[in-house]
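Need C-alpha cells for this chain, all 126 residues.
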Amino acid sequence: MLVTGAGGTLGGAVARGFAREGASVVIGYRRSQEAAESAVAEIVAAGGTAFAHQLDVTSQSSVDRFVEQEWGVAPEHIEEAKAMNPMNRFGDPREIAETVMFLASDGAGYINGQVVHVEGGWVAAG
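Here are the C-alpha cells for all 126 residues:
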C-alpha cells in the first residue's frame, strides 16, 4: 500500500492504520524524510512491514522512477499495465477522493467494518 504524504501527520496516521490492518506500507514523502523514517520505525516496531521512499507526485519523472524502481514497470510499459486492468485505465485521484468523502459523510453513517475496493477491478481480476 503506497501512502503519499505519509511523512506528515494525516498521511502518517493513514499509513499506521493500514499497517495495523496487515498491509505492507510504502511511506511516500516529498521532503519529510525524517518523519517518514520515524513512521516506518513505529510500524516495524509494532510488527508491521514498511519502508520510506522519496516521491513527488507532482513530478511525472519522480512517479516514473518510483514505478520502475518499486514495481518493476518501466515508463514505456505503463500502457501495457493499464491494459491489464479490467477497466483498461488507471484510476483518477478524484475517484478515490469521492469515495473517501462519501465514507466520511453522514451518508455513510451506518456503514462499518467494510472494505471498499476502489481499484478498477484489480482485486476481482486476481
